[in-house]
């Protein structure tokens, strides 16, 4: 490869990485906001003796996210695993409020 092609590839890689860094920041802030909201739900549930988990609600969320993922060209199986991972952590937080 010529020096020019190598320099262009390096510039392109930097551009992709800058964009990835911005997207990662959006993900982290979005998750932070989601967890703030679920902390409030956890306190509400603990105050009113409601169960930490709601499998019917989860089934709706998963179905919706699988649809969205398909529209967004994201593997729906990955989207499902990702949401389940987050919800498992939320339930763990809810259970701490209850004990
Ligand atoms: O919506 C609720 O009831 C929540 O507690 C939030 C949440 C979620 O993280 O979206 C977490 C646990 C429930 O099983 C369902 C959904």
UniProtKB/TrEMBL annotation:
It holds the Pfam family CM_2. GO terms for molecular function: chorismate mutase activity. The keyword Isomerase applies. Its EC number is 5.4.99.5. SMART domains: CM_2. Residues 7-98 form the Chorismate mutase domain. It is an enzyme of class 5 (isomerase). The keyword Acyltransferase does not apply. It comes from the Bacteria. Keywords: Isomerase. GO terms for biological process: chorismate metabolic process; salicylic acid biosynthetic process. NCBIfam families: CM_mono_cladeE, PRK09239.1. This is chorismate mutase. It comes from Roseovarius halotolerans.
């Amino acid at each position: 490869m010529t020096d020019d092609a190598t320099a262009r590839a390096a510039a392109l890689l930097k551009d992709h990485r800058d964009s990835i860094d911005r997207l990662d920041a959006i993900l982290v802030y979005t998750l932070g906001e989601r967890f703030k909201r679920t902390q409030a739900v956890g306190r509400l549930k603990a105050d009113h003796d409601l169960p930490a988990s709601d499998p019917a609600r989860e089934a709706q969320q998963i179905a919706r996210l699988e649809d969205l993922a398909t529209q967004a060209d994201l593997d729906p199986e990955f989207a499902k695993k990702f949401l389940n991972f987050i919800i498992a952590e939320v339930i763990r937080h809810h259970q701490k409020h209850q004990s």
